[in-house]
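Help wanted!
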Amino acid sequence: MMMHTGSTAIEVERLCKRYGPKIAVDDVSFTVVEGEIFGLLGRNGAGKSTTVDCVAGLRAPDSGRIRVAGLDPRRDRARLRRLLGVQLQESQLQDKLTAAEAMRLYASFYDQPADIDDLLAMLDLTEKRNTWYRRLSGGQKQRLSIALALIGRPRVAILDELTTGLDPVARRDTWRLIDQIRNTGVTIMLITHFMTEAERLCDRVAIMHGGRVVALGTPAELGRPTLEDAFIALTDHTLADHTLTDRRS
Amino acid sequence: MKMLTMLALTETRLLLREPLAFFWGVAFPMVLLTVMGLSAGHIDGVSLVTIYEPIVIAFISVAFGVQGIPVQIAGYRQGRILRRLATTPAGPARVVGAQLIVSLSVIFTATAGVLAVGRLGFGVPLPRQPFGFALVVVLSAAAMVALGLLIGAFAPTARTAGAAGTVLFFPLMYFAGLWTPQLSAAARHIGQFTPLGAATQALGVAMTGGWPHPAALAVLGACTLVCAGLAARFFRWE
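Answered by r_m:
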């Protein structure tokens, strides 16, 4: 199915979610256009992961409206799972499962999965295909996790903390890989706290702080002079309060 | 069906890669039975190997149900494997289902193995009431697997799940008669209200041709329903 370029892949409108007295996500809205790489940035506890959980249908929002490829992540959960690929933060695989076995298992979940050999080659895992998960390096595990997120030929992929824990070379390689994936037309939502990564990869970013979106735009629009400076200005507690006061006046 | 089959195949493969679990749950019961057979001892005119056959069969269901399943489930939760599966069309419940299928299959296979060792190695007759015997094997496996699910529902980590399984192993197997097959009258009385005390007594009855006492079946059925119900009610996927 061909989608119109410029049509909406992910729509989040006035999303709110609290855990007991703690407000995790407070009135968050953004849209992700089909084919773009959208970055969700923020410090630890900013509300990124809760937002992602709601978008992926893992948590029910308290209020607000979410659509992913036109589907409600909770109500149309079964259909959403078929067209959404997710790479979760800190999610592991069984220690004694080989890379190829994991790929075959996850491929069996989808009607028309991607080719396992192609995907393993694209992620530079061909030589590791018969290696147990626990014997893979951090970078290899991460790449396998990305491969599993793509095995179902998703239209939308959510990649959470893609390069956390990777060495600089592995990080560069992963970035190149994301460029390749973008070229296949997959819409990507990238969750990160590395500003260079967001600058390098994302078409647009939303910066979250204290459960809210405090800035939204292209990295170039937001970066004054760099995205990192903008990020710190927006999310450093003392400065952030100052910024908000400025805006109100 | 395709997903469940692939998940069950994967779980089987992973189990075969755990030699220690396999030794404890499959080989050890047969070794124990062999030792009893070779000792050629008797209690009240009944050979030790005959007495121990129901006990090692109960042991198998504890090894895989109470000690195996909780560690697997808690480990999958801890490693966020259940959460990861929740984002795929397979869903997390299917992998738990696959684990139950594989565990029950292994319990039944190992039970058949124990019967074979007893019969071929030491001439212990096969159960004279095979249907009653099979019913008790199925019910006791179900009870132990349900208890395992219940532990797995609560245990936050694989380590605590393993510890809980080990702690439960001792009273469960005590009343099954693992350490003292000839329990005191009082212990025997209490034992018949515990799942494996009821199971071993009922298995012994079925071996000699009787139909298991309804009370024993009720104890096993109640244990299964209560544990499975509580597990379903309180199960945490993450």
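OP: Thanks! One thing I noticed: The interface with chain A takes residues 2-3, 6-7, 10, 13-14, 17-18, 76, 79-81, 83-84, 86-91 of chain B (CB under 8 Å).
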